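Risk register update: the risk of archive-format incompatibility is retired. Evidence:
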Amino acid sequence: MAQRIASPEDLKAVREKAQQDIDLRSGQKELRITVHMGTCGIAAGARDLLTVLMNELQQNQVTYVSVTQTGCAGLCDQEPMITITDKNGSTFRYGRLSKAKVGEVVRGHVLRGQPMVEYLIKI
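Archived output:
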């Protein structure tokens, strides 16, 4: 079976995708989304949420958000969780998230600036 040789267009698409991933994970932006990836978070599905989050941001061409990961936040019963921090330092911690809820948070909070109160953790 012959292997297909990548075309310049294929290589350009791979490079652009890699650059988008790097841009999402670096630099000072308007919003920072932190995915809590401690053992409890991973066991509750944080890896899947991170994938959905990254896909939602890329599909909506969001460039003003950086995505980071951290360990346990000490609220294991609220996992999986994300924290959104705006440029003023205000934080919004979302808990007991699902893939669908992460999409709602991106569309509501990130795109429209309206925190999704029903998913916020009340501390």
